[in-house]
Known about the structure:
Structural class: mainly alpha
Order of helices and strands: HHH
Strand content: under 5%
Number of strands: 0
Radius of gyration: 23 Å
Mean pLDDT: 88
Number of helices: 3
Helix content: 55-70%
Low-confidence stretches: none
Largest sheet: none
Amino acid sequence: MLKNITLSAEEELIQRARDKARRERTTLNATFRCWLNQYVNRSSKTADYASLMDSLGYARPGRKISRDELNER
């Protein structure tokens, strides 16, 4: 179910956004819904990234690897 909300912005900014949406063959409303979805899901991606980096904590970036280490199987 879609629910209406009210936002406010400068009139010129709104017009430029509508013009851009029109050039992209969409609506400002559809663009906002897409942005809102990305905004809501962004925090979980950040948490996933932090978890990945924690799991890679054993890696030591910047260490030179010897030729023998590169050739190990």
